[in-house]
Amino acid sequence: MSAEFADGTAIVGIGQTEYSKAAGRSETQLACESITSALADCGLLPGDVDGLVSYTVDPVEETELARAIGFREIKWSSRVPYGGGGSQGVVQHAAAAVASGAADVVVAYRAIKARSGRRFGRADARPQAGFNHAGTTAVQWCMPYGIFTPASWMALNVTRYMHDSGATSKDFGRAVVQFRDYAAANPNSHFYGRPITLEDHQASRWVAEPGIRLFDCCQETDGSAALVITHADRAADTLAHVRIAAVASAGLFEEEIATDHYTPNLAIMDSSAAVARSLFGGCGVTRDDIDVALIYDAFSPMLLMQLEGLGFCGFGEAKDFVADGQLGPDGQLPCNTNGGLIGEGYIHGLNLTLEAVRQLRGTAINQIAGARTALVSASRTATILQVD
Amino acid sequence: MLPRPAPVVTDDNEGFWIAASQRRFVAQRCNGCGQLHHPPRPMCPNCRSLDHEWVELSGRGALYSYALLHYPQHPAFTYPLVAAVVELEEGLRFVTNVVNIVPNDLAIGMALAVTFVEIDDEMALPVFEPRRES
């Protein structure tokens, strides 16, 4: 299937809860709040919804949502693996359901209590054959060695990336400083009013040396985000007409998710390169057309690796691209204008899609003037959104 | 001191862990086409054979990547803990710890050899240490 199959579908509604350290209510309630907010955003009613998509790791059951929100007949439901790497896959599933006629109005959602509930960054995970249906099994080969967390898994890729590319912790820090700058202006973010300097970044403690300091890590967050996806013509009379120009996914041979240690060259993000080939192959959008990018920054080094994988820079050049200020509001590729997962919070990537929609509607806090085309990338899934 | 988390033994990987408990470092070799695989899997992705055996490896390799883990800390380990990806002589990758080394001596490409740490009376875990050329 080509990436532009989704042409004719649109994200018409977005909704979220507050992002916090302790939501104090169930994930199901958080999902109910964000979904009804997204429906109100586009003037649709629960009875209009006939499709549901989420992550395989999301704890909220479709039946519970129907029971609480009052959905009448769900004709399509699906779940996407790959954890946060699949966060744009939910857009792909929803758009595919709409484009094929399997459903008319699809809600994509993620609800998470990554701060007050089970934290990704803690060492309390028990070894298991897989990892909560995240689409990975290689976790079992890390746990006996004390390699417990996404930061420690990915640090193995990052050290090799640093070795081969010449990137340093300071290069990662420059991206973090930019994201914290954006976040400082965003009242919805974890770090509202709290920018940092490169010196602050360099003084933050090691999580996994030499690539990942505390300030390189995204913020484990409680909250929920939701999108409403339907036919673009159905959206035409609403305020927000954000078309899904292209959407793609790439699950490659021998590739794992966060424990991706078996592909030939760990300094390169092959899945990003594959997704970029699909995205930029047929829909007529080029890299130069991207006005704003939202790139999954669970850890800042992955941002640089994706810039290279997506083809915005050659290998080893992302550090200069970042140092030259290209991610800033006046740069070539304003990036993570909500503060990213590092600055705004970690709703497992779906909050990046919401920010892309706000940018294209012209309603973002750090609005990029005249933004018409946005890229959202989560390493192995990505989407291009457009307004006319 | 708490023990390390025990490996998860499954139908697909138990040959590896039985060998490890006997202090043998093995990989799965397809009896259809002869390819080696790690991590183990029920079917050979090259020839689709279901028939394989567990063959002992040389136990030699080179450091492909590493990280010094500082946080979070688990009582079974001392920190910083050396996490590593080793490129084995046979061409496979293996995620492990490097032991008997000070962090400053870690260098990508350095020669390593397998050794074992005991998890309990029954289970041992293959880890790597610097290899002295002989």
What does this structure look like?
The complex is a heterodimer of chains A (388) and B (134). By secondary structure, chain A is α/β, with parallel strands linked by helices. Chain A has a single domain, classed as Thiolase/Chalcone synthase (Peroxisomal Thiolase, Chain A, domain 1, 3-Layer(aba) Sandwich). Chain A is 32% helix and 17% strand. Chain A contains twelve helices and eleven strands. In chain A, helix 1 crosses helix 2 and helix 5 crosses helix 9 (300-309). The two termini of chain A are 24 Å apart. The mean pLDDT of chain A is 94. Chain B has one helix and eight strands. Chain B starts with 13 loop residues before the first helix and ends with a strand. With 134 residues, chain B is mainly beta. Chain B is globular and about 45 Å long. Chain B has one helix at residues 14-21; strands at 26-30, 36-37, 52-56, 60-69, 81-88, 93-97, 111-118, 124-130. In chain B, the strands form two sheets. A five-stranded antiparallel β-sheet of chain B has the order 6-5-4-7-8, with helices on one face. Chain B has two domains: 7-56, no CATH class; 58-134, OB fold (Dihydrolipoamide Acetyltransferase, E2P). Strand 5 (206-209) of chain A pairs antiparallel with strand 4 of chain B, so a sheet runs across the interface.
Distance between the termini of chain A: 24 Å
CATH class of chain A, named Alpha Beta
The neighbouring-strand order within the major sheet of chain A is 3-2-4-7-1-8-11-10-9
User: How is the biggest beta sheet of chain A arranged?
Assistant: 9 strands, mixed
Annotation, overall tally of beta strands of chain A? 11
Which labels suit this protein?
heterodimer, A: 388 residues, alpha/beta, Peroxisomal Thiolase, Chain A, domain 1, nine-stranded mixed beta sheet, two-stranded antiparallel sheet, globular, B: 134 residues, mainly beta, OB fold (Dihydrolipoamide Acetyltransferase, E2P), five-stranded antiparallel beta sheet, three-stranded antiparallel beta sheet
